[in-house]
Every structure is written in C-alpha cells, then in structure tokens.
Amino acid sequence: MKTFSEATAIGKATTAEALDIFDSLEPVAVSDMIGSWRGSSFPTDHPLDGALEAYHWHGKRFETTEHVHPLVFKTADGDTASVNPTWMLPLVGWIDRLPIPKSEAVGNIFQASLFLFSTNQSCARLRPVTYRGKETATMIYDSLPINDIFRKVDDRTVLGLMDLKGMECPFFFVLQRD
C-alpha cells in the first residue's frame, strides 16, 4: 500500500490507493479545521484533477463551525474571494461526466469574472460525521449534495475527499494550513 508521502512524491495514485491512504489516516477534530487553508488536487485521474488549480483556486476558509467558505479563489490583484458554490448547481450531476476546460485562458477568464460569483456569505458548515468507519471533521455544503471529509496527514496538512451524491468516484484534494 502506498503512503500519502509516496503518492505525493509519485504525483498520483489510483482511486483505490487513495481510499486506502485516506482510510489509514487519523480523524480530524472539527476545531482543528478552523482557519484558512491552501488547497491542491491529489491526482487520481478524476475529471476534476487540476481543474480547481486552473481556475486559480486558493483553498477553503473555516471561520467557525457555522461559517465556512468552501471555494476561495485568488483574484487577479493577489487577494482572495469566496465563490458561492450555488453557481455550480447546474453542473453537479455532470461534474464527472463532462470534460472540464483546464486551460490558462479559461482560468484567467474565470478569475476576471470572480466578482460575478463572489459572496461574503457562508456557504457551508463543519460537523463531525462518521465516514468509512471513523468520525472526522466534515464540511457540509449548504445548497449542494456535497460533503468534504477530512483526515489528518500532519498538524498542518489534511487529505480531503469530496463525496458528491451520484458521482462515481470521489475527488481527492489536499489542504495545508495558511
């Protein structure tokens, strides 16, 4: 079985390997998620691999257990903006079935359009949820059938698994504390 370190050194894992790695990690306390986190994909050949980075994803921000910003992107001026994930609702059922443009040009257009999708409102919350046999911190989207479940890699790093209702395979990502 690959470890998290081995998979990141190689640059990818299969979904089965990623699930084994995820299952081997310790749970995360909800309180340990509070703060700002920088995100990146954990490649498993999922259609979302690299997509968030192409759109200048910064990560996630957990202000409190009730006030969570699940999609934080870098702005052109170097700041960050929280995006309301409700804009993704028409795509949710197709997210793993349609090709996602990942070009620099499309990412720059999205970045220039961030003001259209930005919000100061919380769009998710944190709860302890039992998933794959362990109770761990889970981010629950307010308006989408998505849960992001977290497991501890170390004191500054968590492995996340996006569980979208109806999606064939989970999407994996890494968060590192800002």
From TrEMBL:
Alphabetized InterPro entries for the sequence: DUF4334, GXWXG_dom
Residues covered by the GXWXG domain: 20-78
Gene3D superfamilies assigned: GXWXG domain
Segments forming domain DUF4334: 124-177
Protein name: DUF4334 domain-containing protein
Lineage: Bacteria, Bacillati, Cyanobacteriota, Cyanophyceae, Leptolyngbyales
